[in-house]
Design brief:
It contains 13 helices and 37 strands. By secondary structure, it is α+β, with helices and mostly antiparallel strands. Strands 1, 7, 8, 9, 10, 12, 13, 15, 16, 20 and 21 form an 11-stranded mixed beta sheet that branches. Strands 29-28-27-24-23-22-31-30 form an 8-stranded parallel beta sheet. β12 and β13 form a beta hairpin. It is globular, with a radius of gyration of 27 Å. The structure holds alpha-D-galactopyranose. The site of alpha-D-galactopyranose has 10 residues, from loops.
Length: 726
């Protein structure tokens, strides 16, 4: 074994440790231990990932697997932290390269490591060629969530091509009853939760679309031993990347499950000239023995505390009004001012003008790319509207879709070569638009300057940043043919660059990531965006399962939810205003209805519920979420509970689809309260059962439960439990 150099700057007993006798690395939090070691061949071998191990339960040195007969030699069956394709590897490699001489064999062995606080970096090198991979590890001592990424460096003196590069492989212990939980969907039907047994073949979750996509979300959870929402072991992870991505899940010959995720290798190729390197995205992952509910709460806390741009103390989301469903493209100064007046009257804090305010944008056929205020709709620019919105006590937000262009636009007429395209081939349109090639420096700079000017000239607090199609014909003709596929990496890096630099230059700016709904929600974009739009589907009943699925990986603190008009355009379903409000109050509340059609009673109901929401939003957005009754179990009922981080407030929402057979609404058994604490009940909407006490212990609310009186179709109730000082 080659042991070149080690440098250790961490005190023993810290979150990251290295045992020089056994060559074992250990990353620990109070609940979780993750360990790997250098085996006798020099491979970085995965050893353990699960509940916290006591310090005296030392892990033995890494010993390579025996393999199986002549068909599965030890080099392939030994679980590695980051296996390159080479030697005899038949499972998914983390890295695959090709060299100019035709060699495609790469075998990575340990070279050195650096240890610093909660950060560990391990350097691997090929057995004969100077290709190095730096593996980075971090552990959050609070949640036990690990962050892993890799940098691939070419020191060979000749170019090489990276054909496949993952951020990490996660190795789970052997088991024969693993269940994979993942999220799938499509436009207006995002965030559907799937469960499937892990069988002896590979399962692929991916996007080949150039962005995150609605069809799969880059999140997984693996349970075993019959784990459910409330209990049992869960290994979970989320990839922080907003371009094409792939996560594979496969059991090896001994039923150990390997999860590998990073850039999607489909159509991928990244040439590294001598001295160049490629960074992978970060893959976050965690473990809990506390079921899927606890896995979500750990991720939520981690996002609020470490991922979001305002972490560790994100500002609660303001109550927002958006004009899209009210006006579509027919925006103008007088109409927006009128909506703003009504919105302010019911307690809205942020007024957002959606699509239609710029260029020749009267429909989705023209104007994208021309970010100049339309003079017919806004003869004096945006200033009078913004001043009015401010005078009404709200801040102002604006819809933009900067990465896109309509062929019918001044920008496209001037720069038809700025879009992704293969010369001489058709350019497939989606919603009459093409994708600007952000990988080009000139396009990146143009978008940045246009938005920077808009923000400099107008007092804009918020961008709804939309992205309404996926890639097609992803050519980058200005690049050398062998470098064109770098577009999959450079585009997203430049998108992040624009978002980061706009925020730096305009520190007040908040951003929502929208992609025709929930098509670009991931931990990569969430480092630069304060909130996300889960779905264009605003039907309040459909939203219950959409929102439920969303919360498996992502915090309700970023989940925008609008109250819109009834009947809703998606299913033509009619629901009461109160039902619509309660559905949206499970996330970050917005209103997207045509307020000019609301009567006095509607406006009073809205004002009451907006007021009520402001008193619970910190709990809903940043508290601990318990999915008490899932809307997707085929039952008529669903219920959630959120508990504030200081334990002083709990908020319960209950929803009924339709009563039948005189069945009563089920008793809701609360969770996460202090059994000895006393909690006073306050009703926000709906009615509790007649025998419900006004005040009781946490033990009572958890064991006796709470009875809500819900009967009829599309009924909802919300109650608050406030802890009584003792
Ligand atoms: C997308 C968004 C909508 C709206 C329209 C505007 O579809 O998801 O909310 O902003 O674009 O064109």
């Amino acid at each position: 074994m080659l042991l070149v150099a080690t440098q250790t700057i961490a005190a023993a007993g810290g979150p990251v440790n290295y045992d020089p006798d056994t060559h074992v690395f250990t990353l620990s939090s109070a609940q979780v231990t993750y360990a790997f070691g250098v085996n006798e061949r020099g491979e970085l071998q995965s050893l353990y990932w699960g509940g916290h191990r006591a310090p005296d339960d030392t892990l033995p040195a890494a010993r390579p697997d025996t393999g199986s007969a002549s068909f599965d030699p030890s080099t392939g069956s030994t679980p590695q932290e980051y296996a390159a394709w080479g030697s005899a590897l038949y499972t998914e490699p983390a890295l695959k390269v090709s060299f100019p001489d035709g060699n495609r064999d790469l075998v990575l062995h340990y070279l050195s490591h650096t240890l610093n606080g909660s950060h560990l970096s391990v350097l691997l090198k090929d057995i004969s060629r100077d290709v190095r991979v730096e593996l980075r590890y971090d552990i959050d001592p609070d949640s036990g969530i690990l962050a892993r990424s890799a940098r691939i460096e070419n020191h060979t003196g000749k170019p090489l091509v990276v054909q496949q590069a993952a951020a990490a492989t996660w190795n789970l212990p052997a088991g024969s009853d693993y269940v994979l939980h993942s999220l799938s969907g499509r436009w207006a039907g995002e965030w559907q939760l799937d469960h499937r047994p892990v069988l002896p073949s590979q399962t692929v979750l991916e996007s080949r679309r150039g962005s995150t996509g609605e069809q799969n979300n880059p999140w997984f959870a693996l349970t075993s031993g019959g784990a459910n929402e409330d209990t049992g072991p869960v290994w979970f992870g989320a990839l922080a990347w907003s371009g094409s991505w792939r996560i594979t899940v496969e059991p090896d010959i001994w039923h150990r499950v390997r999860v590998t995720g990073g850039y999607n290798p489909f159509d991928f190729s990244y040439r590294l000239a001598p001295g160049e390197s490629l960074e992978t995205p970060t893959f976050f992952a965690g473990y809990t023995p506390g079921g899927l509910g606890e896995a979500s709460r750990l991720l939520h806390r981690f996002e609020l505390g470490h991922v979001l741009p305002q972490a560790p103390h994100p500002r609660p989301r303001p109550v927002l009004y958006n004009s899209w469903e009210a006006t579509q493209f027919n925006v103008n100064e007088a109409g927006q001012m009128k909506l703003a007046e009504i919105a302010a009257g019911i307690g809205v804090e942020r007024f957002v003008m959606d699509d239609g305010w710029f260029g020749a944008r009267d429909s989705d056929h023209a104007g994208l790319g021309d970010w100049v205020v339309n003079p017919r709709k806004f003869p004096h620019g945006l200033q009078p509207l913004i001043a009015k919105v401010h005078a009404l006590g709200m801040d102002f937000g604006l819809w933009v879709e900067p990465e896109m262009v309509n062929p019918d636009s001044d920008l496209y007429r001037k720069h038809p070569d700025w879009v992704l395209n293969f010369p001489g081939r058709p350019r497939t349109e989606g919603r009459n638009q093409l994708v600007l090639n952000l990988a080009r420096q000139d396009v990146r700079d143009h978008i940045f300057h246009v938005l920077d000017d808009l923000l400099t000239q107008n007092d804009i607090a918020f961008f709804k940043w939309d992205y309404n199609r996926n890639w097609s014909e992803p050519g980058w003709p200005e690049q050398k043919p062998q470098d064109q596929q770098k577009v999959y990496v450079s585009y997203v890096q430049n998108l992040y660059w624009i978002l980061q630099h706009l925020r730096e230059r305009h520190p007040k700016l908040e951003i929502e990531s929208c992609s025709g709904g929930g098509g670009r929600v991931d931990l990569g974009i969430m480092r630069f965006t304060d909130e996300v739009w889960p779905s264009d589907n605003t039907d309040p009943f459909d939203r219950l399962s959409i929102q439920d699925g969303f919360t498996y990986p992502y915090t309700p603190g970023v989940m925008m939810a609008w109250v819109t008009d009834s009947p809703n355009w998606v299913n033509q379903r009619s629901t009461s205003l109160e039902y619509r409000f309660l559905s949206s109050m499970q996330g970050a509340l917005g209103i997207g209805a045509d307020l000019s059609r609301w009567n006095q009673q509607d406006l009073q109901t809205a004002k009451r519920l907006v007021d009520g929401y402001k008193g619970i939003r910190m709990t809903v957005q940043q508290g601990l979420l318990y999915r008490l009754i899932s809307p997707r179990d085929g039952s008529e009922y669903s219920a959630t509970q959120s508990v504030s981080t200081d334990g002083r407030q709990a908020v319960v929402f209950g929803f009924l689809h339709s009563s039948s057979m005189l069945n009563p609404y089920p008793r809701i058994h609360l969770q996460g309260l202090d059994p000895k604490g006393r909690y006073r009940l306050r009703v926000l909407a709906g009615k509790p059962g007649e025998d419900t006490p006004e005040e009781a212990s946490g033990a009572h609310w958890m064991s006796e439960g709470l009875q809500l009186m819900l009967k009829g179709d599309f009924q909802a109730a919300a109650v608050v439990l406030e802890r009584v000082a003792q």
